[in-house]
Design goal:
31% of the residues lie in helices and 21% in strands. It has 253 residues and is of the alpha/beta class. It has a 4-stranded parallel β-sheet. It has a 3-stranded antiparallel β-sheet with strand order 1-2-3. The protein has a two-stranded antiparallel sheet with strand order 6-7. Helix 3 crosses helix 4 and helix 5 packs across helix 7. InterPro entries: ComF/GntX_DNA_util-trans, PRTase-like, PRTase_dom. This is Amidophosphoribosyltransferase (ComF).
């Protein structure tokens, strides 16, 4: 496991500094296992996903804060690392190890994973490492690290992205339809995933449309379960404003 990573009560730390509060330990003490976000106080139903959900569970190291959230005072070091990942492939090693640590320490309990896969990108969407100049898919790099630390074998490419698309500004149902049309399962994958539990890796879950579209396609070919594992779950500020006494307190040990 990556040296310097550890869990202390409600937080994951790196080299003595908190990376993020665990999704499972926000003040409400409740979270949605399906989409991976803390729930409002007293609520057992999640307002952040709908009936189109095909992912069986979402796991994340912690919350990812958008620029809008940071302007409201929210933030953590995990968000900074995820942003750095867009320019440095090395960050995938630390983030992937942090993801694996949560499974090994029992924060998230998954013991039935048969196949590790990842959200694909088109070549023109690859990030560029600022030091080496090499292009990379951050989801694949995270999947490699997670699979290595959990001894799950090498990640398998199961789907390809057939066309570029953007989901910003669309309704949830529109996002799902567009994402569903944007991916196709690779040939000869069915035998690898039939009656299997699949771990789908990405850097961030926002609406969940991409992961759910891929999960739906994998299940159509016989996958038993599809778990989504991300470095960060995009924070819904309206919920955090309700469950945290103040923005700083949400991520303060």
């Amino acid at each position: 496991m990556y040296r310097g990573l550890e869990l202390r009560r409600d937080f994951i730390y790196y080299n003595g500094s908190p990376l993020a509060r665990l999704i499972t330990s926000f003040p409400s003490r409740r979270y949605c296992p399906i989409c991976g976000h803390p729930l409002p106080r007293g609520s057992t139903e999640c307002p952040l996903h709908g009936p189109e959900e095909r992912v069986d569970a979402t796991m994340a190291v912690g919350l990812y804060y958008t620029v809008k959230a940071e302007r409201s005072g929210y933030g953590n070091q995990l968000t900074n690392l995820i942003l750095r990942l867009k320019q440095s492939v090395e960050e995938a090693k630390l983030l992937g190890a942090a993801m694996a640590l949560l499974v090994r320490e029992g924060v998230f309990r998954i013991s039935d994973v048969d196949v590790v896969t990842y959200v694909p990108k088109r070549r023109e969407e690859f990030k560029v490492d600022e030091e080496t100049g090499k292009r990379f898919n951050q989801a694949y790099q995270l999947a490699r690290a997670v699979a290595h630390h959990l001894r799950l074998g090498k990640p398998v490419k199961t789907v390809r992205k057939v066309k570029p698309f953007t989901l910003q500004g669309l309704r949830r149902d529109e996002r799902y339809r567009l994402a569903y049309a944007g991916y196709e399962v690779l040939q000869n994958v069915a035998d690898r995933i039939r009656d299997k539990s699949v771990l789908l890796v990405d850097d961030v879950r926002t609406s969940g449309a991409t992961a759910n579209a891929i999960a739906a396609k994998l299940k159509e070919l016989g996958a038993k379960k599809v778990y989504l594992f991300v470095a960060g779950r995009t924070a819904e500020i309206s919920i955090l404003n309700e469950i945290c006494s103040n923005a700083e307190g949400c991520e303060k040990p």
